[in-house]
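Handout, section B. The chain below has 413 residues.
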Amino acid sequence: MKGIYLIVLIFCASFTYSQSALNILDLYHESFPEETARTVTANAHIGDYTYHMNIAGISFQGIASPADYLKNESISLDFADNRLAVRIGTKTFYPDLPVWQLIPIVNFADSPYTVAVSQLGDTTDNLGAQCRFHPAFLDNLLGLRLFQADLLNLTDILWDLPIDAQRHYILAPSEQPFTPQRDSVIHRSIYEKLSRGNRFTSFVLTDKDVNFVFNTDESGLKLSGQPYYYFVRTLTDTANIRRLREQAIKCYDEIETNAKIILKDKYTPNLNPRTGGLGELVKTLTAYKQENVFNPYSMYSITKALTTLDSLNNLTNEDIGIKFQIQKDYTESFKSYWGSLKKFNPLVYSAVENTAQWSAFFRYVRQVNPDNWTQFVRKVENNAKSDAPAVQTPTSSEINYFRYFDEKEKDSR
């Protein structure tokens, strides 16, 4: 990933218009004029800077395979009466996949993008939301469930569920009745395991190299294979990053100072290079240059500063001073905690598992029977009726320390 990361360290702004909560976490829903400011359309690759620091919190890319005895069987999908049907060979199965999950998973599997959720925005665009979602998971309950699974390091939150403005749990009918309840034994186990892994600095929920397999028995269609958290330690040369940051700030100062000299009273706040006006400023200065109304010395200074910024944008991770250490052993050891996570928050982690397994299964069908897949997607788009409550996926979040310390006080009693 290029060094435009440096520039984004300096600026970020948006406007909050509503709010909900998740235990000690306040969830903000900020207003952006373009829906693309809240979505992420990208593929992630483990070991790539973009994956860990920039785009992916959750990424699923797996393709399932049939059990050996099903490899020669035909497979097709259908959707009727608001219900999924899977036909394998001569048998038809009706899996218990809620429609509110089916719709976004189908749309996810039908897209070329594998990043489901990002809580670090996109450093190539500082005007977007902090929390971004694949279009399939934007503003629906499954997207909200996936968002929570990316909060692994906040174990005081992980057991709970979001509440609405009336402080009611946000639940689909298929999740009723369910009351979140923190299991102190499981909480301690997960917390201590994460504490012992304090050398990691980031994690990704992924299905890379997971062997998803589907088979059938008298009880129906079965999917196996589980996603997992992948841990990475980031090593940074803070002195070099600070030096480069100061260099970027100096360039902005130089551009702004000389632009004011050239434009005088025509310089307006929307041309401020620090707050996203750099492109418009360059266009305005270019127009002045064409009209021969400019200060040659000031224009030279601006051009020199722009050239320096461009060189900063083309720095590699190594140039910036960022290296990654993959925590392979710790990643492997944490895989055994998947069952504990499902017990700790059944609704979140069953939804996560469904997303990974069913998107892998649907990709297989899409691959082996593309005509049927196209017809199936059209039926889902035209006929599926979600029974989940309407929600907004958050654009940012913040720990509410009043509630946080209240929770700690309760724990100490």
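Note. DSSP finds 15 helices and 15 strands in the chain. Compare this with the example in section A.
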